[in-house]
Amino acid sequence: MWTLEELELLCRVAHDLGTPVVGHCRGARAIRDAANAGMDLIYHATGMDDEALAAVVDRKVPIAPTLTFQANMADFGDVVGADRGLRDHFRSEITDSVAGLKRAYDAGVPLLCGSESGFSMVPYGHWHYREMEVFTRYLGLTQLQAIQCATQAGAIGLRMEGRTGVIAPGYLADIICVNGDPAQDVTILGEPGRIKHVMIGGRMMDISPVAPRKPISGWRHASMGRQLTRDLAYSKAAAGEGSAPG
User: Fold this and answer.
1) What mean pLDDT, rounded, does the chain reach?
2) pLDDT < 70 regions, the chain
3) Is residue 188 within 8 Å of 143, Cβ to Cβ?
């Protein structure tokens, strides 16, 4: 919908004002033009061809693939009544794009973890670990590489490089204490009760369960039906009523 000249003007004006520019891009032309125009972050970046990949790699534009929604639809869509054709479509968006994303990562392009949280397939508080699982399962990253994408690389998206994302002198003490070793299996970060302590800026946070509350009245985000909570997804899979990630 945008010409390269329009995108270049947009990026130039925004950057003159100290404002970063983010592109929501699927398809080779959109990705190539976003990178060449000077955008600071690209969401999705699925469907890259060699020309788009070269533009991203040349400028080291960070990418947030944000594949959790697709993975949840592919793995658990049957739990909420999605037909197989739709589930296969979302899985193919992942499988058709992982080669390009992995080539970008291997060439030094930062990959950030996103989640699309807010839709019924990815309700808040249930799937924030899942993108790391997708990175290890589909892109072949190690557990620690995936964790780095969610922490050190995540600081890029927050414009907080050098301030957070790693445990080091001079950085904010943003730390979680986990019962288990996510360096061996990142999925334990999604298991209830595994995260024992949370520290933000060196201060311990109260992580007591929140009190139940009534649904918010009035306008709300459009829903695709029943919320796919983690408990629902895995309880149905365990009961043989749905598929679990392979």
Assistant:
1) 92
2) 216-225, 236-246
3) no
